């Protein structure tokens, strides 16, 4: 319980700051109770930036990225985990090498590629570079090795199932907890991504939520922390909903069969 309270305090403090004024936040000792100014702070936020437009763009990016990552990464991981093909070990070693490289090294090559494709300034420039990532393939491969028994694959082959039917009807049902975790991880990462959208989305009408919130730091001579924290609070709420939905599926599938009558 002590650990839960400590980990929850930052979220509580966010709500406190979002419901008070900047002057009340700056007092010493700090005010630790909720205030009545949440709606005023939200109104100033909406007057300062196109919050809901940026949130709509972020929803498109996060949902599209998550769906494509779950499909492509699990498909590649299934091939690595359950199929023998020439060059498999070399390809996986190359994948691990990419996994260990800092993401910042890819910014310039990605920017040049997006410029050649003419995608700079559009949401495609943020969605497609993240659709197949080394972590997702590595995570799903390791999960599939233990979760999908070779006997099931052999039985599916004997029944005439090809690669995609084996993947869809045998592989995916056995790895739903792993997919749930990867979905949570990918959605949160896409939702909170700041550096690459800042570089790639040169069109002001196509900015994502984190880029829009960062504009609050430079749009006022005096920092309005209450308004900023109101924006942070609104930006966190969708993540809480997504985590609640995916976490329930993750826990249910992970514990399925653990207790038998």
TrEMBL record:
Annotated GO CC locations = plasma membrane
Record-annotated ABC transmembrane type-1 domain positions: 55-246
Membrane-topology descriptor? Multi-pass membrane protein
What are the transmembrane regions? 54-78, 90-113, 119-139, 167-191, 225-247
Output one GO BP term: transmembrane transport
Tell me where it mainly resides: membrane
Report if keyword Nuclease is assigned.
Answer: no
Q: Which UniProt keywords apply?
A: Cell membrane, Membrane, Transmembrane, Transmembrane helix, Transport
Per UniProt, subcellular location reads as: Cell membrane
Q: Which family does it belong to?
A: Belongs to the binding-protein-dependent transport system permease family.
Tell me what this protein is called: Carbohydrate ABC transporter permease
